[in-house]
Amino acid sequence: MNKTTTISIGGFDGMHIGHQALFDKLDDKGTIVVIETGYANLTPDRFRERYTTHRIVYLKLDDIRHLDAKGFVNLLKVKFPKLKKIVVGYDFHFGKDRKYSYDDLKNIFKGEVVVVEEVKHNNDSVHSHKIRAKLQIGDIKGANEFLGHNYMVVGKRIDGQGLGSKELFATINLDVKDFLLPKEGVYATLTRIDDEEHYHPSVSFIGHRVSTDGTFAVESHILDGELTCKDKAEISFVDFIRNNEKFDSIQELKEAIKKDIAKAGKELKFLQL
Ligand SMILES: Cc1cc2nc3c(=O)[nH]c(=O)nc-3n(C[C@H](O)[C@H](O)[C@H](O)COP(=O)(O)O)c2cc1C
Ligand SMILES: Nc1ncnc2c1ncn2[C@@H]1O[C@H](COP(=O)(O)OP(=O)(O)O)[C@@H](O)[C@H]1O
After folding, report:
1. What ipTM score was computed for the predicted complex, to two decimals?
2. Which of 114, 184, 252, 255 could connect to 87 by a Cys-Cys bridge, CB 3.0–4.6 Å?
3. Which residue among 183, 189, 257 is best mutated to probe the pocket of ligand 1, counting the most ligand atoms within 8 A of its Cβ?
4. Which residues belong to CATH 2.40.30.30 in the chain?
5. Ligand 2 atom closest to Cα of 35?
6. Which CATH class is domain 151-268?
7. How much is the pTM?
8. Which of the two residues, 5 and 98, has the higher pLDDT score?
């Protein structure tokens, strides 16, 4: 913190292409200041560190929300004594009732304040809430374009019904906490198991198993062979395949999953893994 000369400030859930435009303005001693609201569910907690080489410092919203503009700048000066430049976006607001903007920063901070213009994709302003909305309708491609990377979730391995490996296809079942789950359905995905470096082509199901026991599941079938997952896995979403459906028999469900596997295999074949 003592060496930091430039910072960018925000909630930074998503670490999307709008956020990256801010990070591009940091120098090599630049630090990202994440204001933790408790609502981040696209890139919660330390997962943000995957999408930047800059150091990240976390401030709790509750510790700063009461501050006026002067108080906020003072806090930054104490935390970063060598601070010369603050980078924020066009819609950055802070303090009580979010009533201060970059103009207040410019008036009070005795250094440079860089304001990044609105980043758009296909003429649509990029924001975390829009990415959440896209995931909730299964628009993975759209979400990924806004993010600039594949949306991913991490979960702890749990036991499934044991039906998959016996009668259907073997899957890794996950308990996913903290991350927003995309809409119920079937997805072409890449799955990373435990601490492997490699991602496996896979097809994943999210939803209530309406054709079997009705319980909610997040599960991934690995296309390139059966593997053991000890502890955790990560699912990186590439495309939406179909909605969750109720099949009248296990045989029909099996036929549908076979088609899902073929579709996902075709789509993922061309990716460099
Ligand atoms: C690619 C794929 C697609 C699936 N599609 C559905 C579906 O449309 N409807 C449904 O009820 N269950 C679906 N399932 C979930 C199965 O019901 C589940 O794999 C099966 O119940 C075995 O679960 P287990 O791994 O816990 O034993 C799907 C599973 C996979 C891997
Ligand atoms: N599309 C964008 N273009 C430019 N700056 C942005 C954009 N989205 C967010 N920012 C900036 O990034 C920082 C973090 O904003 P935040 O509120 O966490 O993002 P979001 O609006 O996506 O939830 C703020 O300084 C904000 O002004």
Report:
1. 0.96
2. 114
3. 257
4. 151-268
5. 18
6. mainly beta
7. 0.96
8. 5
